[in-house]
Each structure stands twice: as C-alpha cells, then as structure tokens.
Amino acid sequence: QVQLVESGGGLVQPGGSLTLSCAASRSIFNIYFMGWYRQAPGKQRELVATETTGSGSYYADSVKGRFTISRDNAKNTVYLQMNNLKPEDTAMYYCNVVQGSSAYWGKGTLVTVSS
Fold first, then answer.
1. Which residues of the chain have pLDDT under 70?
2. What is the pLDDT of residue 21?
3. CA angle, corner 86, sides to 84 and 91, nearest 5?
4. pLDDT of residue 99
5. CA distances from 69 to 6, 28, 41, 113, 115 (A)
6. Residue 14, Ramachandran bin (φ over 0: left; ψ between -120 and 50: alpha; else beta)
7. Per-residue DSSP letter, 39
8. What is the pLDDT of residue 29?
9. Minimal CA–CA distance to 52: which of 33, 35, 69?
C-alpha cells in the first residue's frame, strides 16, 4: 500500500510557473511507473506526464516543452515542474504510481491559471 499526497497547487497568472510535489508514504525506489494526470471541470481525466524506469519520460503534446516530471528517491517524492502555464492548464492534478498490479492515486492538488 502506498499513500500519496500532492501539494504545490495554487493560483498563478498565465506565463507563470508552479512545481507540484507528490510525497509517497514509503520508498519509491522500486516503483517503476509514476505519473501525473489532470482533470479539468467537465472533462475526463487525462495523462500529463509519466516516468517509467528504463523507458524514460513521456509527455502529452499539450505540455511538451513546458512541463518536466522528475523524482527524488531519497525523499520519496515525484515532482512536476510546470512552466509557461496557460489558462487551459487549469485542473485538479493527481499523482499516480503503479507497483505490480496495483495502482495508487493521491487526492489531487488544484492548479488555477488566470489573470
């Protein structure tokens, strides 16, 4: 079992930056798949970025070049650095990890991009 807690969301102006954090309740050293998803009001949850051990990172086209996913195994934390934010990035952002046949989700952190 892995508990995930996201943080770092907030209100930011277009063009601004935020860094989201996802703290895991135990070591993520052996977790091979980690990802960030988002869900905007009235829309389905969508994949934003993933990191797979041995395969590297993947980004949705809408965030490619602006977002960066990373992990710090020593801190059991996954990050999502978001630059040049746009109003369409407004959403609840969720962290996800997969270990074996089990998937775990955090409760999300809200990002609002507005002037």
1. none
2. 97
3. 120
4. 84
5. 14, 15, 23, 19, 25
6. beta
7. E
8. 77
9. 33
